[in-house]
C-alpha cells in the first residue's frame, strides 16, 4: 500500500507558550492588586481626584489591553511545507494572480512592472497561471508599460526558468548579482546574463521615457469606461530556439464615474473577481499589491501544500505569507508595528483559527468569498440579487472544473468582462456587504478576514526561511504616521460596524480569537492611555499631587514588577525573532509616536465622519522616496518633514516632560522627598530619554529634516498654557 506523506507539518512553540502562561498568571495577580490599590486609594483621597481618576482609568485600559494581548501568546506555531510531495503538474489547480495599482505618481511604473514580471516567473505550469493587473488609476502609461513588460517577459521568464533564478524580479536580481546565489553558474550563464541585462535596460528606458513624455496622462480623467486587454502568446527561447509558454496577462481598469463611490481597493478587488471569473476563473487567487514582488518562485507550490491537503482544505480560506520589506534597515525606525504583527501576532493566531488578511501576499480560495465553509454548493437562490445580473458570471461561480477557454481574448468574453467591471454593476446586489471584499472599512483586508472566520473559514500562516514576497516599507516619518492613521481609522470603522466581534455572532469564533481581534481593533484607543501617561503625572508634579506610592512602600514593588516584566517580555520577543536591543528601543519610540498622533487623529477623523464633516479616505502610501531620504533612514535619523499637527503634539509632550523632569528633580532636592516623587520623575525621565531624537530635531539638528523653530516655539507656548492650567487638576 502506498503511504502518502504529509504535505506540511507544524510545530507548537511549547516552551514559549508555557513561559507565557506562567507569566500571564503572575502578571494578572499583580494587575489585580494594582487595580485594588488604585480604586481603594481613589475612594480615600480628597485632593487630586481628577488626575487619580484619569490615571486609574488609563491603567485599567492598559491592563485590559495586556490581557487581550495574551491571546497571541497562547499557542504560537510555525509551519513547514513539502512542495516536492505535491501531485504531478497535471493535477494542480489553476491560479489567478491579482496585482493592484492605482496611481503612477506614488507608485512608480517600473516598480509595478517588476511585480508583474516576478509573478510571471512563479514556478507553476504557465498555462495554469493568469496574471491580472488592476489599474485603478486607468493610466494609459500603465497599459503601455504592461505591453512592453510582456515583450520583455518573453526573454525574462525563459531565462529565470532555465537557470533556476530565485530573485525573479529583474530590478532586485540585477542589483544582487554579486550574491553567492550565482557564483557557481556556468560561463554560458554569464554570457546570457549580459544580453538580458542590456535588454532590461532598454525596457526600463522605454518605460521611463514614456513616463516622462506622458506627464499629462499620469492622472487620467476621473470619468472613464472600463478597459480590458488580454495579452497572450508564446515565447521562443532565443537561447535554445525552444517554444516556451508564459502565463497570460490581463490588464483591467474598471469603469469610474465621479458620481459613484468606488470603494477604494475593495471595490477594485471585487471588480477583478468578476472579470477574472469570466476570463479564467481559477479556484485560487494570489493577491499582490504593486509594491510587493515575488521573491521566491516556490510560493505557489508551497501554498498548494496546504490548499490540497484533504484534512484541512474544506475549511481553509487562504494561506498567508508575511509582508517583508527589502528596503528596511537593521534598526528600522519606521516599520516596526508590522514586524510585531508578522513575527508575533500572526504566528500566535496561526495556532488558533489563523490570522486575518493583511492585504497582500496570500493565496485565497475564491469560493470562500461567496459562501460559508460548511455549505456544500454556492447558494444560487436569488443569484441576481446577490451577485448581479451577469449570467456569465453566475455560471462561472458554480463551474466546478475550470477549463480555461482557448478563446479568452475573443470579443464576446471581453465584452462580458467589461460589463461586470462597470461602475453600476453592484447596485442592488450583495457585493461589498456579504459577497467579495467588504466595504465598511478602509482596512478591507482585516474586516474581510474577520468576516471569513465568522463564516467558518480558517487560514494558515506560512513564514518560510526565504521571504516569498518582498515589498517597499515606508522610509519617512510622515508616510508611516499617515499609513497608520488610515489603518486606525479603518479599525474604528469596524468597531462601530455590525461586524464588531463582541456583538457579531460571538459564539461562532473561539474566545481567544475574539480577544486577539479586540486587541487589534481597540488599538486606536491607546491614544488616551499614552496621552494620559505623558501629561497627567507631569502636571501633577507641578501641582504637588502624588500619583504613585513611595519607593519604600510595598505597593511600589507591584508597579515595578508590572513595568519590568512587561518590558522584559517585549524585549525577549524582539530578540528571539531576530531583532536587536536597538530595534527594541526604536520600536518603543515608534509606538509612542503612533499612539500619540496617528491614533489620535484617527479618532478625530472618525468623529468628523460621524458629524458628517468628512468621509474617511484611503490615502495611498508613497512607494518612492525623496533624494537623501534613504541615507537618513539607514542612519536611523528621523525625517521630521512631517505634517505639522503630528509634530506639534510630539514636541509639546517632550517639552512638557523635560520641564516636569527639571521641576521634579528640583522639588525632590529642595524638599528631600526623592522617595515620594520617584515614580513621577522616572516617568518624565523615561519619556524624555525615549524621545531624545525629537529634542535633537528641535535644538541640535540644522538639516532640512529638523523640526521647524516655529513648531518648537509653539510647543513651548503650549507647555506654558498647560502649566497655567494645572490648577484645573487640583
Ligand atoms: O483606491 C485604491 C486604493 C489602493 N489601491 C491599491 O491597494 C494597494 C495598497 O495600497 P497602499 O497605499 O500600498 O497601502 P498600504 O499602506 O501598504 O496597505 C496595507 O493596508 C491596506 C489596507 O488599508 C491593504 O489594502 C494593503 O494590502 C496593505 O499592504 C496598492 O497596491 C494600491 O495600488 C487600489 O487599487 N485602489
Ligand atoms: Mn503598500
TrEMBL record:
Active-site residue numbers: 136, 445
One GO BP: cell wall organization
Entry annotated with the keyword Magnesium: no
Subcellular location per the Swiss-Prot or TrEMBL entry: Endomembrane system
Binding-site residues, UDP-alpha-D-glucose: 106-107, 136
Annotated binding of Mn(2+), by residue: 265, 289
One Pfam family cited in the UniProt record for this chain: Cellulose_synt
Chain segments annotated as transmembrane: 21-39, 51-69, 516-542, 554-578, 646-665, 677-695, 707-725
Keyword Cell wall biogenesis/degradation listed: yes
The protein's name in its UniProt record: Glycosyltransferase 2-like domain-containing protein
Amino acid at each position: 500500500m502506498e503511504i502518502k506523506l504529509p504535505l506540511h507539518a507544524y510545530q507548537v512553540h511549547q516552551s514559549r507558550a508555557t513561559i507565557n502562561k506562567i507569566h500571564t498568571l503572575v502578571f494578572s495577580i499583580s494587575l489585580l492588586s494594582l487595580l485594588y490599590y488604585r480604586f481603594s486609594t481613589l475612594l480615600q483621597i480628597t485632593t487630586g481626584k481628577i488626575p487619580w481618576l484619569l490615571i486609574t482609568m488609563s491603567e485599567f485600559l492598559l491592563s485590559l489591553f495586556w490581557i487581550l494581548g495574551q491571546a497571541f501568546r497562547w499557542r504560537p506555531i510555525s509551519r513547514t511545507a513539502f512542495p516536492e510531495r505535491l501531485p504531478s503538474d497535471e493535477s494542480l489547480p489553476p491560479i489567478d494572480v491579482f496585482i493592484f495599482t492605482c496611481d503612477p505618481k506614488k507608485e512608480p511604473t517600473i516598480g509595478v512592472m517588476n511585480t508583474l514580471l516576478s509573478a510571471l516567473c512563479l514556478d507553476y505550469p504557465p498555462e495554469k497561471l493568469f496574471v491580472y493587473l488592476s489599474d485603478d488609476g486607468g493610466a494609459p502609461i500603465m497599459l503601455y508599460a504592461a505591453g512592453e513588460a510582456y515583450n520583455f517577459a518573453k526573454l525574462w521568464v525563459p531565462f529565470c526558468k532555465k537557470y533556476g533564478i530565485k530573485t525573479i524580479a529583474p530590478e532586485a536580481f540585477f542589483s544582487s548579482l554579486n550574491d553567492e546565489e550565482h557564483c557557481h553558474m556556468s560561463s554560458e550563464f554569464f554570457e546570457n546574463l549580459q544580453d538580458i541585462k542590456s535588454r532590461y535596460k532598454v525596457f526600463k528606458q522605454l518605460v521611463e521615457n514614456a513616463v516622462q513624455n506622458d506627464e499629462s496622462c499620469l492622472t487620467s480623467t476621473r470619468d472613464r469606461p472600463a478597459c480590458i486587454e488580454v495579452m497572450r502568446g508564446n515565447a521562443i527561447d532565443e537561447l535554445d530556439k525552444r517554444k516556451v509558454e508564459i502565463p497570460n496577462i490581463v490588464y483591467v481598469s474598471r469603469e469610474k464615474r465621479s458620481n459613484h463611490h468606488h470603494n477604494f481597493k475593495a471595490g477594485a478587488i471585487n471588480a477583478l473577481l468578476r472579470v477574472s471569473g469570466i476570463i479564467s476563473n481559477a479556484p485560487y487567487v494570489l493577491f499582490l499589491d504593486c509594491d510587493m514582488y515575488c521573491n521566491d518562485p516556490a510560493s505557489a507550490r508551497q501554498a498548494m501544500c496546504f490548499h490540497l491537503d484533504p484534512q484541512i482544505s474544506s475549511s481553509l480560506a487562504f494561506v498567508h505569507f508575511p509582508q517583508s520589506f527589502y528596503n528596511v534597515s537593521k534598526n528600522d525606525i519606521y516599520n516596526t508595528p508590522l514586524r510585531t504583527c508578522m513575527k508575533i501576532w500572526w504566528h500566535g493566531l496561526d495556532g488558533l483559527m489563523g490570522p486575518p488578511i493583511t492585504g497582500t501576499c496570500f493565496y485565497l480560495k475564491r469560493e470562500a468569498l461567496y459562501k460559508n465553509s460548511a455549505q456544500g454548493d454556492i447558494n444560487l437562490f436569488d443569484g441576481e440579487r446577490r451577485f448581479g445580473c451577469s449570467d456569465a458570471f453566475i455560471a462561472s461561480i458554480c463551474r466546478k472544473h475550470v477549463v480555461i477557454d482557448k478563446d479568452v481574448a475573443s470579443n464576446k468574453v471581453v465584452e462580458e468582462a467589461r460589463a461586470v467591471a462597470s461602475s453600476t454593476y453592484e447596485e442592488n446586489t450583495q457585493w461589498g456587504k456579504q459577497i467579495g471584499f467588504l466595504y465598511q472599512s478602509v482596512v478591507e483586508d482585516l474586516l474581510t478576514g474577520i468576516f471569513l472566520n465568522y463564516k467558518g473559514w480558517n487560514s494558515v500562516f506560512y513564514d518560510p526561511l526565504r521571504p516569498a514576497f518582498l515589498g517597499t516599507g515606508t522610509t519617512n516619518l510622515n508616510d508611516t504616521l499617515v499609513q497608520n492613521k488610515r489603518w486606525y481609522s479603518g479599525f474604528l470603522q469596524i468597531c462601530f460596524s455590525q461586524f464588531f466581534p463582541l456583538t457579531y455572532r460571538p459564539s461562532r469564533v473561539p474566545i481567544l480569537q475574539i480577544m486577539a481581534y479586540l486587541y487589534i481593533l481597540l488599538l486606536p484607543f491607546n491614544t488616551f492611555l499614552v496621552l494620559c501617561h505623558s501629561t497627567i503625572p507631569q502636571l501633577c508634579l507641578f501641582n504637588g499631587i502624588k500619583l504613585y506610592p513611595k519607593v519604600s512602600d510595598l505597593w511600589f514593588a507591584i508597579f515595578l514588577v508590572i513595568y519590568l516584566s512587561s518590558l522584559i517580555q517585549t524585549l525577549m520577543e524582539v530578540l528571539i525573532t531576530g531583532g536587536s536591543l536597538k530595534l527594541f528601543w526604536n520600536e518603543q519610540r515608534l509606538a509612542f509616536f503612533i499612539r500619540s498622533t496617528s491614533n489620535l487623529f484617527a479618532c478625530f477623523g472618525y468623529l468628523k465622519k460621524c458629524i458628517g464633516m468628512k468621509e474617511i479616505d484611503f490615502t495611498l502610501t508613497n512607494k518612492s522616496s525623496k533624494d537623501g531620504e534613504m541615507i537618513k533612514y539607514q542612519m536611523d535619523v528621523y525625517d521630521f518633514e512631517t505634517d505639522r499637527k503630528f509634530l506639534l503634539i510630539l514636541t509639546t509632550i517632550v517639552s512638557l516632560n523635560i520641564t516636569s523632569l527639571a521641576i521634579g528633580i528640583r522639588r525632590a532636592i529642595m524638599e528631600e522627598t526623592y522617595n515620594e516623587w520617584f515614580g513621577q520623575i522616572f516617568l518624565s525621565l523615561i519619556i524624555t530619554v525615549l524621545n531624545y531624537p525629537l529634542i535633537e530635531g528641535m535644538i541640535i539638528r540644522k538639516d532640512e529634516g529638523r523640526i521647524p523653530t516655529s513648531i518648537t516655539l509653539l510647543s513651548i507656548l503650549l507647555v506654558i498654557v498647560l502649566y497655567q492650567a494645572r490648577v484645573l487638576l487640583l
